[in-house]
Amino acid sequence: MEIEKNDLEKFKKLGIQNILELSIIAPVKYFDYQIKNYIPSKMEGVFDVKIKDVFKSKKLLRATAYSFNLQKEIEIIFFKYSRYHESLLQKEERLYFYGKVEQKFLKIQLIQPKKISKSKIDKIYPSYKITIRSDIFRRLIERYVSKENL
Predict the structure, then answer these.
(1) Do strands 107-111 and 114-116 pair parallel, antiparallel, or not at all (unpaired)?
(2) How far apart are CA 90 and CA 30, in angstroms?
(3) What class, spelled out in words, does domain 44-120 have in CATH?
(4) How large is the angle between the packed helices 134-144 and 5-14, nearest 10 degrees?
(5) Rounded to 5 degrees, what angle do the CA atoms 150, 133, 44 make?
(6) Residue 150's pLDDT is what?
(7) What angle do CA 56, 58, 59 make, to 5 degrees?
(8) In whole angstroms, how far apart are CA 96 and each of 2, 26, 113, 150?
(9) Which of 17, 27, 39, 67 lies in disulfide reach of 45, CB 3.0 to 4.6 Å?
(10) Considering the entire predicted model, what is its pTM?
(11) Within its chain, how far is the Cα of 105 from the centroid?
């Protein structure tokens, strides 16, 4: 398969010449967005939560939420929060968060978690150390890496 002209620039940014070199770029990390019923302390995982209450102070935004996958209440904490975080944590809102679990003061806490869209749930995403955006790189792989092209 011939590489399209506009994709040649992306290949050059990646420092590769052909489709075979594209196919052997290895991920440096994987993000597991599968919902699990148990997540050990200090491990990362996805949480399906419903926001119950929100507390704001000058440097801290804290929300109490019910985690459907753990079937427990958890605390979501953002330091140096922005208006984006405030708009994110609305009462009765059901959200998916990815973050590291910490157990402090007999409470399960998520500190600075990342919001995950529903379309990413129950999938595993590779993370590459590359010079172009990951969504563009993913499209290049989908377009060019196949049995026929290799």
Answers:
(1) unpaired
(2) 30
(3) mainly beta
(4) 120
(5) 100
(6) 78
(7) 95
(8) 40, 28, 10, 38
(9) 39
(10) 0.80
(11) 27
Instruction: Dump pLDDT digits (tens) for 28-81.
Output: 999 999 999 888 888 899 999 999 999 999 999 999 999 999 999 999 999 999
**Using CA atoms, how far apart are residues 47 and 74, in angstroms rounded to an integer?**
10
Domain residue ranges in the chain: 5-28+130-144, 44-120
In whole angstroms, give the CA distance from residue 129 to residue 114: 20
Question: Which 3 state secondary structure label does DSSP give 109?
Answer: strand
Helix (H, G, I), strand (E, B) or coil at 25: coil
Tens-digit pLDDT profile for residues 85-133: 999 999 999 999 999 999 888 889 999 999 999 999 999 989 999 989 9
Q: Taking a C-beta distance cutoff of 8 angstroms, is the pair 137, 15 a contact?
A: no
pLDDT > 90? residue 149: no
List of residues 6+ apart from 35 with CB closer than 8 A: 46, 47, 48, 69, 121, 122
